[in-house]
Amino acid sequence: MSAKITELLDKDIIEPVEGLTPWVNPIVIVPKQGGDIHLCIDMRRANEAIERTRYSIPTVDELLQNMNGSKIFSKLDLKWGYHQLELAPESRGITTFATHEGLYRYKRLLFGVNSASKIYQHEIATALAGIDGVNNISDDIIVHAPDQTTHDRRMHEVLQRLRDSGLTLNSDKCILNMDHLVFMGMLLTEKGIGPTED
Question: What residues pair up with 169 in beta bridges, in sequence order?
Fold first, then answer.
């Protein structure tokens, strides 16, 4: 666990807590394949005190309806998920957790906060608002177009917006310039939208 704490500190995701704090959440260690771990915070009690924000998350059907006629598809994946969004200093205290090395709190949005998915969806959608042929559900972004020139123009605009918003892509999970693509369990092709074989 010490290595995970050091990693989170080095990535500026958490910070040490000095002095007294009104909140201390329990931690849950979840093993990953390969011997690494997920350090999770049990936010159930804290969530009772968090004032929830309400943003709608689009359904897959809502996103897919404007993809008809598209022939070129790309799927972009944002790196570090919720951790890309910084918490306001006054909101960090409620994320405090205790370890054998002391108290820490999150500087960035974390999984387990009751409204995290809606906040994240809203921030990504806001960053990409107004670009035709671009949709997202959480950290999965799809860029689609009827031709390569339009696709490339849209992709350039998406990359510029992501950069301007301080959002980072996970290049290992990005799929570019495809004539078919699986997005949220649906197969997208120039012939239309359908289920995958799976």
Answer: 78
- Kindly report the length of the chain: 198
pLDDT tens string 74-90? 999 998 888 989 999 99
Q: Which two tokens stand for residue 196?
A: 């995958």
SS3 82: helix
* pTM assigned to the model: 0.79
Q: Are 40 and 110 in contact (CB under 8 A)?
A: no
Strand-pair partners of 178: 73
- Please, is 185 exposed, middle or buried when counting C-beta atoms within 10 Å of its C-beta (0-12, 13-18, 19+)? exposed
Q: Which two tokens stand for residue 145?
A: 């177009």
β-sheet with 72-77: strand ranges across: 134-137, 140-145, 72-77, 175-178
